[in-house]
Write a structure and sequence with these properties.
single chain; flat; 119 residues; 2 domains; 5 helices; mainly alpha; 0% strand
């Protein structure tokens, strides 16, 4: 008699496997069974919450380290090596340009949303 695969085992397999097919193989169940189990009992919602938590934690970590990265680039501007200085300068300017573009788009979107609310 086979042991029933638990919800926790399913969630774990999906999170560490590159695909649902691979997760099902790891669990020794069919992909159809895996999909059925995800759909019933709110397991898909739980998986989505776990994935969102992982993304939130990763983003927080990246944001916390972004100031270190910016400081490193700033320090490289003082390098003796001209190529290092040039690369740091280009990198800083590229990031600034992208940031300004995104900020501009967000401001425009906010303006449009306000206009739509008022109409």
């Amino acid at each position: 008699m086979r042991k029933k695969v638990t919800d926790e085992q399913i969630l774990s397999a999906i999170l560490i496997s590159p695909s649902a097919t691979e997760a099902a193989k790891q669990l020794k169940i069919t992909k159809q069974t895996l999909c059925y189990r995800l759909k019933k009992g709110g397991l898909q919602e739980k998986l989505n919450r776990i994935r969102q938590d992982i993304l939130d934690t990763t983003l927080t970590n990246l944001l916390n380290n972004s100031s270190k990265a910016a400081n490193t680039l700033s320090e490289l501007l003082e390098s003796e090596n001209e190529m290092t200085k040039l690369t740091a300068a280009k990198t800083i300017l590229a990031f600034c340009e992208r940031f300004i573009d995104k900020k501009d788009i967000l401001n425009r979107l906010e303006t449009l949303e306000k206009q739509m609310e008022n109409n």
